TrEMBL record:
PANTHER family: PYRUVATE DEHYDROGENASE E1 COMPONENT SUBUNIT ALPHA, PYRUVATE DEHYDROGENASE E1 COMPONENT, ALPHA SUBUNIT BACTERIAL AND ORGANELLAR. Its EC number is 1.2.4.1. One of its GO terms (biological process) is pyruvate decarboxylation to acetyl-CoA. This is Pyruvate dehydrogenase E1 component subunit alpha. NCBIfam families: PDH_E1_alph_y. The lineage of its organism: Eukaryota, Viridiplantae, Streptophyta, Embryophyta, Tracheophyta. CDD domains: TPP_E1_PDC_ADC_BCADC (cd02000). Its cofactor is thiamine diphosphate. Tetramer of 2 alpha and 2 beta subunits. Coiled coil: none annotated. Residues 97-391 form the Dehydrogenase E1 component domain. Keywords: Oxidoreductase, Pyruvate, Thiamine pyrophosphate. It comes from the Eukaryota.
Amino acid sequence: MPSLSKICSSFCFLSLLPRSRSRAPNPQAMAALRRFSSPAILPLRRFAASCPFSATAGDDQAVMTVETSVPFTGHRIDTPSRSVETTPKELLSFFREMSLMRRMEIAADSLYKAKLIRGFCHLYDGQEAVAVGMEAAITKKDAIITAYRDHCIFLGRGGKLIEAFSELMGRRAGCSKGKGGSMHFYRREAEFYGGHGIVGAQIPLGCGIALGQKYSKEETVTFTMYGDGAANQGQLFEALNMSALWDLPVILVCENNHYGMGTAEWRAAKSPAYYKRGDYVPGLKVDGMDALAVKQACKFAKEHVLKNGPMILEMDTYRYHGHSMSDPGSSYRTRDEISGIRQERDPIERIRKLILSHEISTANELKDIEKEVRKEVDAAIAQAKECPMPDSSELFANIYVKGLGVKDQAP
Ligand SMILES: Cc1ncc(C[n+]2csc(CCOP(=O)(O)OP(=O)(O)O)c2C)c(N)n1
Ligand SMILES: [Mg+2]
C-alpha cells in the first residue's frame, strides 16, 4: 500500500504539471506531440513540392498519383504504398466536404453560445480528414460506429445538414427525431450506428456488428472508432480478443487527437503507440490529417480484415476546439501548440495547396466553394430553427421494442 504522503505528493506533482493559461508554449505537451507524432508533421509549404502529378489539367477524372505526407508505420504487417491514386474531382470533393464539416462545427459553436443548442456538444474541427478519407475507401454498405464526436461522421455517411442542425437543436426533423442531441446521431439506412456517450462502449458494439456481417457473407466491414482515452479501457481488449478469435471483419480506428478531455496522452498512457495495442492484431499508424493517407489505409485495412480478421488503424490527428463546449481548450495546452498544428498540418489547407499547386482550381474558385458552403450551412440553420420540437407524446416512444412493456408507441 502506498503511504498517504506518497499519494498526496503524486497529486501535488500532478497539480504542478502544465495547466496554466499562459500563452508560452507548453514544453511538455509540445515534446509529447513531437515524440509521438513528429514524423507526421510535414510543413505544408514543403508539401506541394513532394507530390508527383500525372494528370492533364482540365480532366477532372484523370488519375493522378500523390505521395502521402509521411510513410505508414506498421505493426505485424507490411505497410501499404505511400503513392495514392486520386483524381482532381476527388480532391475537389475532399475540399468541399471538409470545408462543409468545418463550417458546420463553427456554426454549432455559435448556436451553442446562443443557447440554441443545449447539453453536451463535442466538435470535430481539425479531424475532418479521418471522416472524408474513410468514406472515400468504403461503401455505404460497410458500417461505422463512433463515440460522441459524431456530427461529421454523420455528414460523411450522407446525412443532411438540416437533419444535423435539427438534431442539435432538439427539433423533430433531426436524424434521431430531436431526441438524441449532439452525441446520438444515427443513420441506419447508411449503416451508421451512432453516436455513443459512454467512453469505449461502442467498441464491443462495433465488433458485434462485424459478427453479423461475417454471418451475412456480404463482404462488408465495420469501422469501430474510438479515442486515445478510450484506448486504455479493458473493453477494447476483450472485444479485440473475441474479434481476433473469430476473424471478424472489424477495423478498430483509434482517433488519436492526443488528449482525453484535459489529459494529455503521455499522462494517461504508458504506451501511446495505439497501433501496437492489439499485440497479436496487426496495426498501422496513419497521418490522420492527410485525407489521402487515410483513404489508402482504410482501403488496405478493408481488404485485410475481410481475409484475416481485425486490424487497428491509429489516426494521428488533432482537435482544434476544446473537448466539449464547457472546455475552452487552452488550459492544458498552449495557443501556440494549437496554431502550430493549424499552420503545419491542417487537413483542408493540405488539400487546398495540392489543388493549387497542380492548377486544378484557382484560389478564387476555392474561395467561391467556401462561400457556397457558408450559404448552405446558413440556409440549413434557418430551416432547422423553423422546425417544431418533438410532440410530447414522443417522450416515451422508442424506449422499448414495440410490445415490450409499452402499448401504443409511436412508430
Ligand atoms: C465510461 C466513461 N468514463 C468517463 C466519461 C467522461 N468522458 C467523456 S469523454 C472522455 C475522454 C475521452 O477521450 P478520448 O477517448 O481521447 O476521445 P476524444 O474526446 O479525444 O475524442 C471522458 C473521460 C465517459 N463519458 N464515460
Ligand atoms: Mg482523444
